[in-house]
Amino acid sequence: MTKPKVAVVGYGVIGQRLADGVARQKDMELIGIADVAPTLALRALAERGMPYKLYCASSDNASGFKAAGIPVEGKIDQLLDKVDIVLDATSAGVGMKNKQTYMKKGIKAIFQGGEKNDVADVFFHGYANYEKGVGKNYLKLTSCNTTGLIRAVDCLDRLYGIERVAITIIRRVADPGDINRGLVDVALVEPIPNHQAVDLMHIMPHIDATGLLVHLPITHGHIITVIATPKKELTKEQAIEAFNSHPRIRVVKIADGFNSNTAMFRYARDLGNPRGDMYEIAVFEETIGFSGKDIIFAINIPQEAVVIPETMDAIRAALEMQKTRDEAVALTNEYLGMK
Amino acid sequence: MTKPKVAVVGYGVIGQRLADGVARQKDMELIGIADVAPTLALRALAERGMPYKLYCASSDNASGFKAAGIPVEGKIDQLLDKVDIVLDATSAGVGMKNKQTYMKKGIKAIFQGGEKNDVADVFFHGYANYEKGVGKNYLKLTSCNTTGLIRAVDCLDRLYGIERVAITIIRRVADPGDINRGLVDVALVEPIPNHQAVDLMHIMPHIDATGLLVHLPITHGHIITVIATPKKELTKEQAIEAFNSHPRIRVVKIADGFNSNTAMFRYARDLGNPRGDMYEIAVFEETIGFSGKDIIFAINIPQEAVVIPETMDAIRAALEMQKTRDEAVALTNEYLGMK
Amino acid sequence: MTKPKVAVVGYGVIGQRLADGVARQKDMELIGIADVAPTLALRALAERGMPYKLYCASSDNASGFKAAGIPVEGKIDQLLDKVDIVLDATSAGVGMKNKQTYMKKGIKAIFQGGEKNDVADVFFHGYANYEKGVGKNYLKLTSCNTTGLIRAVDCLDRLYGIERVAITIIRRVADPGDINRGLVDVALVEPIPNHQAVDLMHIMPHIDATGLLVHLPITHGHIITVIATPKKELTKEQAIEAFNSHPRIRVVKIADGFNSNTAMFRYARDLGNPRGDMYEIAVFEETIGFSGKDIIFAINIPQEAVVIPETMDAIRAALEMQKTRDEAVALTNEYLGMK
Amino acid sequence: MTKPKVAVVGYGVIGQRLADGVARQKDMELIGIADVAPTLALRALAERGMPYKLYCASSDNASGFKAAGIPVEGKIDQLLDKVDIVLDATSAGVGMKNKQTYMKKGIKAIFQGGEKNDVADVFFHGYANYEKGVGKNYLKLTSCNTTGLIRAVDCLDRLYGIERVAITIIRRVADPGDINRGLVDVALVEPIPNHQAVDLMHIMPHIDATGLLVHLPITHGHIITVIATPKKELTKEQAIEAFNSHPRIRVVKIADGFNSNTAMFRYARDLGNPRGDMYEIAVFEETIGFSGKDIIFAINIPQEAVVIPETMDAIRAALEMQKTRDEAVALTNEYLGMK
Q1: Cα separation of C262 and D188, whole Å?
Q2: Would you place residue B61 in the very low, low, confident or very high pLDDT band (cuts 50, 70, 90)?
Q3: Closest residue in A to B194 (Cα–Cα)
Q4: With contacts defined as CB-CB under 8 Å, which chain A residues touch B173?
Q5: How far apart (Å, rounded) are the C-alpha atoms in residues C276 and B219?
Q6: D261 Cβ under 8 Å from any chain C Cβ
Q7: How distant is the Cα of D14 from the closest Cα of chain B, in angstroms?
């Protein structure tokens, strides 16, 4: 049986990690990546000897790659002709335009959270609504915060039922090294509700969700505090057990030194993970508590890598590689090393 | 009738503002301040021509003041002999030691939030439990976050009844210019519950409160998101009206540019407030929303000045200047210019 | 004798402070200010009771002011008809367009550092080239860093002669509360030479200047390290004496607690200065040293207010209020309270 | 021939990287590491399956490791008995105490920059004074900033002669995830001269060096601006060529996106380097310029990893593995992948 062929279009923060993620899926084949300009990410790829083949996404910039000494395999058209599915990780809004090309070529595509929902047939989360994506042509992933949040809420929902969720998102305002965004000594408040709560309700319509979001001058991961109303009462121990048994959630202890978003990043670096990335969200064990019967907890969202597993799931769904969530996520988890 | 005589011991971030606050109370007399070393705050006071008289709190350091060109009126003992009440704004833990002296001298004292509760006869908040402080010898104020939080919760509680509160505190990790504390690119998570929730329950024992706290690299004010369960249902408009009618709460709009803790600080600077201080907490209007019947909102706590009004209230209570909350806070508010 | 009539166009970070500065000059009259939208700065002005009259700079936005409850005196045209000179503190580039109006009206104007040099007849610094501005119609001020840097270099140059300067600017990336700029955990390096060195050579053509600039995540003032080659050798004591005798320079000691840009800001707040502003630059005494015969030192530039005094000087020059630098700066200094 | 046996004592930020560095030297053998408590670094090592053997450096804490599920091979005594040399990467001051043990055991040791100079027989830099370390028992490395600075200065010195150096260090105040240090919105100024300049003169006594240091709220690398007086005049192209031919220096272009300390970190992550580390310092090409005949440039110091190569050199020197600098650094560079 031939493996599905995958392209990654847009080799930025997310695109790089998608390419790595596909390369680790033993039942998929990464044909190549496409981008428009010789970014640092592509210079690094060249210095590593071009483990992935690069296709030029803009005729104007082939010269740019050449000048930068970055080998180009061909044009994006040639790449698209070879693949079954595209992971589009371009800047927000570009995916919508690219979709026309994908449709003409008759290839499926998976878009990231920055695109509008109507770019896709289904708004997708590997754990929460896998079956809705099966066989679909165009899927859109939830954003980083929503992806991580849904992991935790879905985990409890399947065991105890969740009726209502209210969250506070402490949002990193920029990725490491991003010089185009930033805040200094400012906590920037957004109106209620944040889009993540709205998106959660889109994916999990049986839950009433809302919440606030504050942008903060940090780069290594978001922190979300969650207050959730369960249908069945649960204890702290049960919550820990539920989270612990989820392959994409780590339960960590503040007392052990896992006391911040950046401690998680540092730990991922020390684990030897490529780029110091972590696919798992973390639940800080000592933050689990109760207000009445509502459960409270805080999670860490490693924004650079958290959506990679669910995007792998999306490929599986779109290409009908697995029919059920459990089969699909098991393979994604295995190949990405999440136990 | 002679005015009550007040001393401020400890002229740091809080002490300076307490001195200013007392100086603005037309029915009190600031006799002097005391400190141990020629800090920048005291150098600034000297450059301003010593509007307050300084008493040396440590025999060793009189020479320090002299070398710095800061005029000293006498020793702290002399100051204490002249006053009816002391506002102790020394570093956490020092107040407890100082209390022995105050007891010996037979003078009343008000301590700040950093001291342990047992330093005082009553844990005090001007709006929430004024009457408990009337005539007491030793009062301890709530900390900055708790003071501001209780203002907002008490405001709703008196009108609609509040049963339960869960909060997320986005805490400034250091005051402006503090080089002894700080975080860079870190969101530091604390175990549940934060002391502010516990303290709120101490002051308002009919409320079930809990919450999380995350330290962030900001200096100009805390942000607290609150989810509160009211006994009587209320609308957003009612909440706005309640907050708006509270002299120590400002309702501000994100759409108008009041979008962050630092926007509030900047506004206070532009108002011409001394030190760019603001006594009022702010409620961001667009953050008011509902999760079920629970009300949600976010407030800004200007940590440097927020406790000043409630400390003025405490003087009024301890010295029995006014017997009721309404009389007391009205005078404090008038003298501090809060309408 | 009637006082010269002054308008301030643009009431942002600089414009507010220019208005305050003019209001403090006893020999000038501030007729009014103009702006286009109800910013926080104008809301604060309204809350203060409109000490300055506001003229609407955009017909479209009069309704905006009205909706915000900010009284408007009239249109900018009416303001310009009443004045002898405009201080244009609009966003970079707008001043150039406004100049057409000023020319038509036959009024003089002073532009800030963000405009291109050719907006003006002369690129001006009150201390370094006052006489060049006398009687001119259009003057452009140096930017905040250049203004402060030139103060220090000119101070030494007049006494010891300075041949060569190399600087490193540690630049605050945003003003307090600015949410449109920012860096998180990044030191952003600019190519050599920085414009400040180039501008210094423009104002002081006998000096060879160059240097580097790094943007950092701070808001309360720039730090510049200077290495300068004097013609006549000087000692540390002589340098301190020179700086100390300059009314717009403070010599401060790290050992006293003046150890950072933010310590200077905090001190200015504690001094009771409006908005916590400081007009003076600071030289950190313990940073004065030598490399060979070259003198090294570090200065603090309070970016929000540092250009105000030199802009007052510029009014004096343009309107020929004083013919010489010494007369002019003496009056500016007196009215602004710099001894 | 048996390979020299090496231990790493202290498995913190530096110790981890020293262990990795030794493990990559094909002509050395890493026997084990020692530490006192189950830090995140050791938890990460355990999660990776303990590629290095851990010895307990404190009898009290063996239980701590056990509780944390971290396998312990034995006590530090057992480790020391097996090795020829120790890399001591404990906290500043501890190395001095440990030295007594190393002396008793008759094993050599290499200390890091935090220790006092008199802990060692020689203050060492692999490129600048390798020969002084040959055969010595106790070597102390230069600190991260000094190590990187000397690389650049030594590189030019050997070709053009350097007489005088003045530097400005923009110092990261904390490592990523460090919650015990930090500054928020502060640029903290140190007196002249910084210790790095003093240390440079210790290693390169023919150079007159001084400079300033400012602590800034960043974590991903220091920036140093250097102004150096060469004996022979050199051009920008010659400087670039000199730096480019140095295996431990990268010349990077701001125009290519290498515009900050954090861009360098991000690039190292994208290169797939373990922990996102970089051994090389970077010279920003567009910062190279001249003030008179003095050369100016800015370098990036990746503080977490920069000292690793020179520490490997130190092992080579102490154990007389290579007699000359050129032989030694060539092997270190080859094994660490620096071309």
Answers
A1: 8
A2: low
A3: A287
A4: none
A5: 15
A6: yes
A7: 19
**Token pair for residue D35?**
């530490």
- The torsion angle over the Cα atoms of residues B5, B7, B8 and B9, rounded to 10 degrees, is -160
Chains in touch with D (3+ beta-carbon pairs under 8 Å) read A, B, C
Q: Where in chain C is the domain with CATH 3.40.50.720?
A: 5-142+307-336
Interface of B with C in 68-97 (CB under 8 A): 68
CATH class of the region A144-301:
alpha beta
- Euclidean distance between the first and final Cα of chain B, in Å? 27
D47-62 pLDDT, tens digit each: 999 999 999 998 776 7
Torsion sign across C-alpha atoms D259, D264, D269, D270: positive
pLDDT above 70 coverage of chain C, percent: 99
CA dihedral in degrees (B49, B51, B57, B60; nearest 10)?
A: 10
**Which pTM value belongs to this model?**
0.97
Closest by Cα among D108, D120, D133 to D6: D108
Report d(CA A232, CA A89) in Å as an integer. 39
Report the percent of chain D where pLDDT is more than 90: 96
Residue in C87, C144, C153, C331 annotated catalytic? C144
The per-residue pLDDT for A242 is 98
If you count DSSP H runs as helices and E runs as strands, how many of each does chain D have, helices first? 12, 16
Backbone φ, ψ for residue B63 (5° rounding): -65, -35
Q: Which pLDDT score is estimated for B1?
A: 64
- Look up the CATH superfamily of B5-142+307-336: NAD(P)-binding Rossmann-like Domain (3.40.50.720)
Hey, is D49 helix, strand or coil?
A: coil
**Residues of chain D with C-beta less than 8 angstroms from the C-beta of A263:** 40, 177, 179
Nearest to B48 among C40, C47, C272 (CB): C272
Measured in whole angstroms, how far is the alpha carbon of residue B264 from the centre of its chain?
Answer: 17
Task: Check CB contact of D144 with chain C, cutoff 8 Å.
Answer: no
Instruction: Give the Cα separation of B271 and B220 in Å (integer).
Output: 16
Q: Where are the alpha helices (DSSP H) in A164-276?
A: 195-203, 236-244, 261-270
- C217/D214 touch (CB, cutoff 8 Å), yes or no: no
Which of C38, C45, C275 has its CB closest to that of B276?
A: C275
Nearest CA in chain D to C216: D216
Residues above pLDDT 70, as percent of chain D: 99
> CB of B104 within 8 A of CB of B81?
no
Give the single-character DSSP code of D60. G
- The beta-carbon neighbor of D40 closest among A220, A266, A276 is A266
**What is the tens place of the pLDDT at every residue in C219-232?**
999 999 999 999 99
* Length of chain B counted residue by residue: 339
Domain(s) of CATH 3.30.360.10: residues in chain B: 144-301
Are A44 and D270 within 8 A, CB to CB?
yes
- Quick check: B198 contacting A, CB < 8 Å? no
Question: ∠ CA(B315), CA(B316), CA(B321), 5° rounding?
Answer: 135
For the stretch B204-253, pLDDT in tens is: 999 999 999 999 999 999 999 999 999 999 999 999 999 999 999 999 99
**Chain C residues touching residue A218 (CB < 8 angstroms):** 184-185
Tell me if D261 and C168 make a contact (CB, 8 A cut-off). Answer: no
Please report which confidence band the pLDDT of residue B58 belongs to, taking 50, 70 and 90 as the band edges. Answer: confident
Whole-angstrom distance, CA of residue A278 vs CA of residue A338? 10
What is the mean pLDDT of the segment spanning B114-132? 95
User: Is residue A61 scored above 70 in pLDDT?
Assistant: no
pLDDT of residue A1: 64
Return the number of CB contacts < 8 Å for A and D. Answer: 88
Q: Among C202, C153, A164, which residue's Cα sits nearest to residue B291?
A: A164
Find chain A residues with C-beta within 8 A of D41's C-beta. 270
Q: Given pLDDT bands bounded at 50, 70 and 90, which one contains residue B339?
A: confident
